[in-house]
Amino acid sequence: MNALALNGGNPACTVSWPSWPQWDDTERTALLSVLESGKWWYGDRVCQFEQEFAAFQSARFGVTTTSGTTALEAALLALGVGAGDEVIVPPYTFLATASAVLRVNAIPVFADVEPDTLCIDPDDVIRKITPATKAIIPVHLGGYVADMDRLVDIAGKHRLFIVEDACHSWGSQWKGKGTGAIGDCGVFSFQASKNISSAEGGIILTDNEDIADRCRSYTNCGRSKHGDWYEHFLLGSNLRLTEFQAALVCCQLARLPRQTEIREHNAALIDAALANIPGIHIMKHDPRITRHGYHFYPFRLDLDTLAVPRLRIMDALKAEGVPTMIGYDRPLYANPLFQEQKQSGPASCPVSCPFHGNPPDYRSVSCPVCEQAVQDTLWIFHTVLLTPENDIRSLISAFEKVFSHLHELR
């Protein structure tokens, strides 16, 4: 192979990667249909999508929301999580996994992740359980499914709720059952970067009708399906999806099965190649994951063996035509929100609150696996996995070139 492109050589991969979001006349027609109907608000399209997506993920009930974040908040409220309760969450995730806990005035407790999945570690979950623990929020990171067998067993023994943060796992299945329908409930996001998108939006899934009814009430101004329109039973909010958004995600959902097949096929090709490159660690293959949603493809670098900084490797891959990203660059508890605790007054509860007693001190929290992962992990975004197989082979050639020319990076 010639010299690295970073040093003036020709790039190994000259692919134009797919853009996101993907859409065509299907979305245009659906949006125009809503526009021309004059029925823009929380109607038949929303109901259709809730039913179709719930069925796709093996759940009985679906309740749409304005975002994955508000879906988490509503789900926690529906389960009765509140002041003084502790909720165990992983630190390798987006802020909303923990901020939703704070929003219901409960306390996030961080349990470390497993090194070969980057999903929450059930052994550390057990270590973090206290008499105040009320729930666990496993995150199905990048479409990889947390060990739900262990977590369901732990939750059952300790009488805890499980709220699946499935915001990366549309289509993922655990032993044939869709994510979001394995615990007490689960939530998904349809934000702009997600594998099905309506720019913003979310949904709560559950097999429990009582939970679904409470979630619906919290997202629909505290109304009840048995009450009058101006009769409000709970302190809810307006978290409703619009007909325009529902029209978009109905179209996107129709494409998802085929797109998921393509992503799985291409990820398997990358797995097979990267497993043979010294210094790269791919994620664990768990046969219990019977369908994989792949929001991104993560891999880890053995930086001591490679003796090249991660950013240097990332720049070399980019120059060869391979788009990678760092992803989460710090554990959640390392954010100023948790470390500085500058807010004051009731609105800041429970991080720093005069009514809460002694707030948790996140400055002493340490999750060593996560702290290492944020230093050595790279992601390949899900759109790359939608390209034809020949392009994936070109991507693999670029990896092989970079890792056979590491001496040029030192």
Quickly list its features.
globular, three-stranded antiparallel sheet, alpha/beta, seven-stranded mixed sheet, Aspartate Aminotransferase, domain 2, 13 strands, 410 residues
Task: Quickly describe the structure.
With 410 residues, the protein is α/β, with parallel strands linked by helices. Helices cover 36% and strands 13% of the residues. It has a domain at 25-252: Type I PLP-dependent aspartate aminotransferase-like (Major domain) (Aspartate Aminotransferase, domain 2), CATH 3.40.640.10.
Walk me through what this model shows.
The chain has 410 residues and is an alpha/beta fold. It has a domain at 25-252: Aspartate Aminotransferase, domain 2 (3-Layer(aba) Sandwich), CATH 3.40.640. The chain has 13 helices and 13 strands. It has helices at 25-37, 44-56, 68-78, 96-103, 122-128, 148-158, 209-219, 243-274, 303-306, 310-319, 336-339, 368-376, 389-404, and strands at 61-65, 86-89, 107-110, 133-136, 161-165, 173-174, 177-178, 185-189, 202-206, 280-282, 289-291, 296-301, 377-381. The strands form 3 sheets. It has a 7-stranded mixed β-sheet, sandwiched between helices. Strand 6 (173-174) and strand 7 (177-178) form a beta hairpin. The mean pLDDT is 95.
